[in-house]
Design goal:
Order of helices and strands: EHEEHHEHHHHHHHHHHH
Radius of gyration: 24 Å
Number of helices: 14
Structural class: alpha+beta
Keywords: Membrane, Transmembrane, Transmembrane helix
Helix content: 55-70%
Strand content: 5-15%
Protein name: DUF389 domain-containing protein
Largest sheet: 4 strands, antiparallel
Organism: Saccharothrix syringae
Number of domains: 2
Strand order of the largest sheet: 2-3-1-4
Pfam families: DUF389
Number of strands: 4
């Protein structure tokens, strides 16, 4: 279930109540007259079955509530109510499979912004990769994969391509185009300082070890990227968000970027170029698979809604 809160202008509250009351996937409707201060109006709250949320939000937007008032959606972890059970049973589909498009756009839009936090996480992840390379530590490499925030912009690009939201594509593309080179430059500087301070042995760092798979580009590089992209998008569009951690550990985007920086400092340009190629393969593979999954889910959702008009006040 999702908890919906609507700030409604007084002249549209009756329409909002009629819309929510008529929809079988809505329950626990609460009206607070005059409770909203800015923007002024009434507050209407309700619990909505996840399968019905996209339709309900679209209907409220058709009433203009999003322009003259506002809406928020929150995940309800536990709902102990026969009315809630009936609402979930009354709408077709399963909550775990339902896509709330506005929620997805808002989430990917927020995670695709180039800001100090995104850049800091990406840089730390690349630096962790550098440590993993020079210390031959797969555990540290896994830590770098988990810390890396790059799936957010990749998912945003996929969403933007499928929904033709070019603003999302531009924003996410900028985050990746600026974020990765900057993180790699900082990592290269850190590796250079480490070599100057004799923190690691160059020959040992270049010797064959357990993290060499990062720059070994092959068919499985693309296969893993495609599978990770598909799993990541399924996770973001359903209630199975915990699966995202597994996606982060699967793809070698951040490790490839960090390895390329270290290899460049050590003058190993072949390894550097292969690492960059690995990075490109993973980025493209994740976006392609995520976009395909999202396109299929979008198509299924539209087929299900054919002939089912939106509720209106």
């Amino acid at each position: 279930m999702l908890h919906l809160r609507v700030v409604s202008p007084v002249d549209r509250t009756d329409g909002v109540l009629d819309l929510l009351g008529a929809h079988p996937g809505v329950t626990h409707v609460v009206l607070l007259r005059g409770a909203a201060v800015d923007p002024a109006g009434d507050v209407v709250e309700a619990d909505v079955a996840r399968e019905a949320a996209d339709e309900v939000v679209a209907s409220l937007c058709a009433l203009g509530v999003d322009r003259s008032g506002g809406m928020t959606l929150e995940q309800v972890d536990t709902a102990l109510s026969d009315a809630a059970d009936r609402a979930e049973e009354a709408v077709p589909g399963d909550g775990a499979d339902a896509v709330v498009w506005e929620e997805l756009i808002a989430r990917t839009g927020e995670e695709s912004r180039l800001n100090a936090t995104f850049q800091a996480f990406l840089t730390i992840a690349c630096l962790l990769t550098a440590v993993a390379v020079v210390t031959d530590s797969p555990v540290t490499l896994v830590g770098a994969m988990v810390v890396g925030p790059e799936f957010g912009p990749l998912a945003a690009i996929a969403v933007g391509l499928v929904l033709r939201r070019w603003d999302l594509v531009r924003r996410a593309g900028t985050a990746l185009a600026v974020g990765f080179p900057l993180a790699m430059l900082i990592t290269a500087f850190g590796a250079w300082l480490g070599s100057r301070a004799d923190l690691f042995d160059r020959d040992l760092a270049l010797a064959g070890h357990q993290v060499d798979f990062v720059f070994e580009v092959g068919p499985f590089s693309l296969i893993v990227a495609l599978l990770a992209g598909a799993a990541g998008m399924l996770s973001m569009t359903s209630a199975k968000s915990a699966a995202l951690v597994g996606v982060f550990i699967s793809v070698t985007t951040v490790p490839a970027a960090g390895y390329a920086a270290v290899a460049a400092v050590l003058g190993e340009w072949d390894i550097c170029l292969r690492s960059v190629a690995q990075l490109a393969v993973n980025l493209v593979g994740v976006v392609v698979a995520a976009a395909l999954v999202l396109a299929l889910r979008n198509r299924r959702g539209r087929r299900r809604d054919v002939g089912r008009p939106l509720s209106s006040g």
